[in-house]
Write a structure and sequence with these properties.
There is one protein chain. The chain is α/β, with parallel strands linked by helices. 39% of the residues lie in helices and 19% in strands. It has helices at 4-20, 44-47, 54-66, 84-92, 134-148, and strands spanning 27-32, 35-41, 75-80, 97-102, 127-130. The protein has a 5-stranded mixed beta sheet. Helix 1 runs parallel beside helix 5. The radius of gyration is 14 Å and the shape is globular.
Amino acid sequence: MRTDTDFMRRALELAGRAEAAGEVPVGALVVRGEEILGEGWNRPIATRDPTAHAEIVAMREAARVIGDYRLGGTTLYVTLEPCPMCAAALVHARVARLVFGAWDPRQGAAGSAFNLVTAREFNHRVDSFGGVLADECGEVLKRFFASRR
């Protein structure tokens, strides 16, 4: 049986695809049980789409695979704590669980700067767990931004 760490390692591989394309290296996948329903990596530059964050790309693919925009019973794995846009999308898609790697103190919306995934104002809350392979996930981002300076 695969663990959160196993799935996060896959998300790190997907982040590598983003990095190779010159995008901020973030990778995500949507899982139900042992089945990966959707995968994504940051692609806003390549697609000229400001919403093409890894989480959104993975959720779009998962929704196509299951034929429903509601992703109940799924877990979304992502290498960086989701931004407010992605956190709200997780809530609206009814994702059951969020597992992320590195915390984002500037714009993270799962407990760092904001906490939209458990906001009582919404009619759904996402069980959230951060810090899985946090050092590895954070190092990928640090290395990427250091190379840009």
